Automatic annotation (TrEMBL):
CDD domains tied to this protein: cpPDZ1_DegP-like
Chain sites annotated for binding substrate: 127, 157, 230-232
Ranges of residues in domain PDZ: 276-342
Name recorded for this polypeptide: HtrA2 peptidase
Taxonomic lineage from the root: Bacteria, Pseudomonadati, Pseudomonadota, Betaproteobacteria, Rhodocyclales
Origin species: Thauera linaloolentis (strain DSM 12138 / JCM 21573 / CCUG 41526 / CIP 105981 / IAM 15112 / NBRC 102519 / 47Lol)
Length: 385
């Protein structure tokens, strides 16, 4: 039995050695006689697994969204300083008065934007383009287009641009309004420091961040994905490559990313986009009051049971609130049946009302609740307030 086993082992070893020699020196002999499964293995390229996505890779999301993120180059007319000799009285005595200004120059700015429609509409930050005389858009594939401003909304720091072309444009997909949760993975895409298109990854650190003093209407997504100067106006996308926010600000003491970045939610960007495309501007409701938080100390001094609502600190004369009878010291607790929990909620609720709408304001005056009808006015633009 032992002898038979040794003969079998030697035969197997000689056969494997023979196959190895044939596959190396004469592989075509094997193709003619080997089963198809063996041929497939022999002919498989050595790097057949090189293109397999590694576990945890977000390459698909990046490839889906990156083409729709553009670089924005802005410029503004200006005069270069004249030569210092032109300020010298002796020079002017011999050579006469000459205008002390040089040729026009156009300093450039840099930011990012996102193409959101096949028609060429682009969303970016207002601060990227607010001082620009000329705007140029550069796509990731190298194409460049002149862009024109359709409208802007300084109170959310958003602006809408448009490029006019018959060429096909990449378009990003907008996520649903409530599709994001704390802990979700997000990618920030933009052109930081002008180095070229860059993708950084992080998670959603918080939602609904406000009272940061950045804009009038604040409802930010906070993320630790690296956002740096030049990322402004770029895309914050989810793990499927859908747009969930517009990168707009960072918390930094050095100018670089410290892992605290803020993006405007896609729901706000979509609303601003639709209004600007339709009318060229954003219209919001306004009643003409100054409001503040109700602290425990204020609640005690006003004899309130809790800190819910918004304290009316001032009423603008002849404003909708003044005509309706709202007074300083009133506590606003509901608008059209929607509870008001804090000043930000009140500001957002009133801003969403259409001008001319008659809204029911429930206020607490002393220990008495009352309903007042307020005809909502149109919120003045920042330049008019």
């Amino acid at each position: 039995m032992r002898r038979l086993w040794l003969i079998f082992a030697q035969a197997v070893t000689i056969s494997v050695a023979g196959l190895f020699v044939l596959s190396t020196l004469k592989p075509e002999w094997l193709r003619d006689t080997a089963p198809a499964s063996v041929v497939a293995i022999l002919e498989a390229p050595a790097d057949s697994g090189a293109h397999t996505r590694a576990a945890g890779s977000y390459a698909t999301a990046a490839q889906r969204s990156m083409p729709a993120v553009v670089h924005i180059f802005t410029s503004k007319a200006g005069a270069s300083p004249g030569h210092p000799l032109l300020d010298d009285p002796v020079f002017r005595h011999f050579f006469g008065e000459r205008p002390n200004n040089g040729p026009s120059q156009r300093p450039s700015g840099l930011g990012s934007g996102v193409i959101v429609s096949p028609d060429g509409y682009i969303i970016t930050n207002n601060h990227v383009i607010e001082t620009a005389d000329q705007i140029e858009i550069a796509l990731n594939d190298g194409r460049k287009f002149a862009a024109r401003l359709i409208g802007r909304d300084p109170e959310t720091d958003l602006a809408v641009l448009k490029i006019d072309t018959d060429a096909s444009l990449p378009v990003i997909t907008l996520a649903g309004g409530d599709a994001l949760n704390v802990g979700d993975v997000v990618l920030a895409i933009g052109n930081p420091f002008g180095v070229g298109q860059t993708v950084t990854m992080g998670i959603v650190s918080a939602l609904g961040r406000s009272q940061l003093g950045i804009n009038t209407f604040e409802n930010y997504i906070q993320t630790d994905a690296a956002i740096n100067p030049g990322n402004s106006g770029g895309a914050l996308v989810d793990s499927a490559g859908n747009l969930v926010g517009i990168n707009t600000a960072i918390y930094s003491r050095s100018g670089g990313s410290l892992g605290i970045g803020f993006a405007i939610p896609v729901s706000i960007a979509r609303s601003v986009l639709e209004q600007i495309v339709a009318t060229g501007e954003v219209t919001r409701g306004w009643v003409g009051v100054e409001i503040q938080d109700i602290t425990p100390e204020l609640a005690e001094s006003f004899g309130l049971r809790d800190t819910r609502g918004a304290l009316i600190a001032g009423v603008l004369r002849a404003s909708p609130a003044d005509r309706a009878g709202i007074r300083p010291g009133d506590v606003l607790i509901a608008v059209d049946g929607t509870d008001v929990h804090n000043p930000r909620a009140m500001l957002d609720t009133v801003a969403a009302l259409p001008p001319g709408h008659s809204a029911s304001f429930r206020v607490l005056r002393g220990d008495k609740e009352m309903e007042l009808n307020v005809e909502v006015g149109r919120r003045p633009t920042p330049s008019n307030r």
